[in-house]
Amino acid sequence: QVQLVESGGGVVQAGGSLRLSCLASGRTSRFYSMAWFRQPPGKEREFVATVRWVDSATEYADSVKGRFTISKENAKNTGYLQMNSLKPEDTAVYSCATGSGGRYEWAYDYWGQGTQVTVSS
User: Fold this and answer.
1) 100: how many CB neighbours lie within 10 A of its CB?
2) How far apart are CA 43 and CA 32, in angstroms?
3) Regions of the chain with pLDDT less than 50
4) Degrees (nearest 5) of the Cα angle 64, 65, 71?
5) Which run of H or of E encompasses 49?
6) Per-position DSSP letters for 4-24, written without gaps between them
7) pLDDT 10s digits, 25-38
8) Do 107 and 114 touch, CB atoms closer than 8 A?
């Protein structure tokens, strides 16, 4: 089992920045990648970014490319999502997940509870 706890969400004005953290505990040696997904109000959950734990290879959704940066600290079992130039359409519940990698939810076995990010215009 892997437990994931997100933190760092909040309310920010458009153009501002936030950094989300995802602390993993439990059998952390079992996951290959960590990803961030988000669910905007009234919409389906969507892929944001993923980082491969062994070599830090990353992949981003087109909507966040150039504005968001995913990273990790292996020693702390923690992943991060630095979000810059935030837009109102970035408003969502952001969740981290661990699994085999890629853009699809089915590839991720463990999920955090999520943290709310609200971007005001």
Assistant:
1) 13
2) 28
3) none
4) 90
5) strand 46-52
6) EEEE--EEEETT--EEEEEEE
7) 988 776 799 999 99
8) no
